[in-house]
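Figure 6 in text form: structure in, sequence out.
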């Protein structure tokens, strides 16, 4: 409930939601994003892999600097499904650029199936991993979900059928 007040957005803190698939990480992230919108903050939702692809294309079409500026101005960015696929060297560098612009007064929500303790290994470049994680992990609120996938639970209508 304290996160719903969005007091963490004003000073640029982050939220990290981790846990197995189907536990509600994306739902929580979107609920927090919707609440931030209601309070007047600008919010962008994107899947992590799509952001990296978008930045790769921006390098090619010359819009990279403009896109970084747009991302830096957004009060809250939700990066959903962090670390589902391997990340390359140029993607790590781009990620650092995005996160570095957000360290003062801008917030990020990250959802991931991968526990935070494995993120350094996932990023696979010790120097960049240290820099990236320093910008998001130390001033974040963590939500660690566990249990069975909510998608496995049948809707109420189906449970009543015999």
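Output sequence:
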């Amino acid at each position: 409930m304290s996160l719903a007040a969005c007091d963490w957005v004003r000073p640029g803190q982050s939220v990290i939601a981790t846990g197995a698939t189907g536990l509600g990480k994306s739902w929580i992230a979107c609920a927090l994003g919707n609440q931030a919108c209601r309070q007047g903050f600008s919010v962008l939702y994107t899947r992590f892999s799509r952001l990296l692809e978008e930045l790769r294309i921006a390098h090619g079409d010359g819009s990279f600097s403009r896109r970084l500026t747009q991302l830096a101005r957004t009060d809250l960015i939700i990066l959903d499904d962090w670390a589902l696929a391997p990340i390359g060297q140029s993607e790590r560098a781009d990620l650092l650029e995005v996160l570095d612009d957000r360290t003062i007064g801008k917030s990020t929500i990250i959802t991931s199936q991968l526990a935070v303790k494995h993120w350094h290994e996932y990023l696979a470049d010790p120097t960049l991993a240290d820099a990236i994680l320093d910008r998001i992990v130390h001033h974040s609120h963590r939500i660690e979900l566990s249990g069975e996938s909510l998608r496995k639970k049948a809707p109420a209508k189906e449970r009543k059928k015999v």
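Caption detail: The two ends are 38 Å apart (CA to CA).
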